[in-house]
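Worked example

This section walks through a single chain of length 288. The input is the sequence exactly as stored; nothing has been trimmed or padded.
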Amino acid sequence: MTNADRTYEIQEVAELTGLSTARLRAWERRYDVVRPERQANGYRAYSASQVALLRAFARLVRAGERIGDIAAQPRDEVIARAEVTVGDESPISPFIEAVRGYDRPRLQQLVADRLRRMGPVKFAGEIVLPLATQVGDLWSLGKLPIASEHLASEVVVHVLKDALSEATGQGPLLLAAALPGERHEWGLLATLVQAQGAGWQVQYLGPDLPLDEVIQAAWTLRPAGVALSASSADLVERSLPTLTHFVSHLPPGVRAVIGGRGTASAGNNLRRHGFEMELGRPAPDVRR
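Given that input, the structure is written out below as tokens.
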């Protein structure tokens, strides 16, 4: 989800919207679709509502509309039509309706039914991640109250944690945690469920975890990999002094992976300090 209280650099916006940075600049220059603020260093700073609006534009363009036509239309109309484009045929539409109506029993029923029919891996990729995006957009645009977002988060996070704890496996151990200050768990948990399906044995340490405690846990449990997550570039920036030494303080041979929306702008720097940006399947010869 986007965070209504922070801004996003253009690389993050490109990842969040599926639009290239060149196209974002062109849309700003030619059509004035959004006008991001400029930071002291000259970089663009997009608000969460601007990111959500750009995602609505991108959705309509992918559906065949012309940006030159829709850029001149009222913003509320663009957002409403983008929601229709997601539409009744979307598998997440019933979930959105339940969230809008504060209908917890209905949402729990939908989650349980789809999880049973799809299995945890497919459910995480095809329901949880798109639902997080849509709920985040509606919240950022003021179309969904924060109480509804909290309801959705509580139900979905609970189910994902259950899916992780109930599964057993003999694959290599992966420790996972969210950076200090990080409270968003949807994306990380969905990714961990998918990693579990790819052969990892996952142990989730939780959100908002000091990095030295992650290192301590790694020395105790000796995992094959450690995965970190951050939804905000600000959180990555705050933890960067520790992150630059994180990999070197892990036990020998332990892979370190970092992901989440907040890592986009710092990706090259993190790679230089030993982080991988994608987890993938465990190597066949890796043992716990």
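What to look for: The first strand starts at residue 7 and ends at 8.
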